UniProtKB/TrEMBL annotation:
Sorted UniProt keywords: Membrane, Transmembrane, Transmembrane helix
InterPro entries: FxsA
Pfam families the UniProt entry points to: FxsA
Entry keyword annotation includes Cytoplasm: no
Organism classification: Bacteria, Pseudomonadati, Pseudomonadota, Betaproteobacteria, Neisseriales
The protein's name in its UniProt record: Membrane protein FxsA
Record-annotated membrane-spanning stretches: 24-44, 51-73, 79-100
Length: 146
């Protein structure tokens, strides 16, 4: 926990140091232009990844074997847009890494295997065999509301 807090406190100083180093290397005007470009790019990415893209997860699941990272793609785009909107080179590099098209594990590999059938021919522990009879109540037509 302490390491996380130290990294969290050092992050702004690392961003400032990277911006000063960039300004020293390419100039202040180009650095400001880079910052404006990345902020506008981040805002545009966040505006275009709306909640409707998250609702496509259901349709993606119906297609069969799909990568778990593909399901989380709208969330990745939103987080990358947020990282682009934060001024600094470190956050830009993290956003670019987040936008790489990684192939993750497929959902078929993540589903636990089903138990094998029992040797005596029964299907398993979740099935209860039995008989039923449907019993409907008879309703007087005069007692209906319509």
């Amino acid at each position: 926990m302490r390491a996380f807090l130290i990294v969290l406190l050092l992050y702004p100083f690392a961003e400032i140091f990277s911006l000063v180093s960039l300004a020293d290397a390419i100039g202040g005007g180009w650095t400001i232009a880079w910052l404006l470009f990345t902020v506008l790019l981040g805002v545009a990415m966040m505006r275009n990844s709306k909640l409707a893209s998250l609702l496509t997860i259901g349709s993606v699941l119906k297609q069969g074997q799909v990568s778990l990272l593909a399901l989380l793609w709208p969330l990745r785009v939103m987080l990358a847009g947020l990282l682009f909107a934060i001024p600094g080179l470190i956050s830009d590099v993290l956003a670019l890494l987040l936008m790489l098209p990684w192939r993750g594990p497929t959902l078929a590999n993540m589903v636990p295997p089903s138990p094998p059938p029992a040797a005596d021919g029964s299907a398993g522990g979740d099935i209860i065999e039995g008989e039923y009879q449907r019993v409907d109540k008879t309703v007087d037509p005069k007692s209906r509301l319509h």
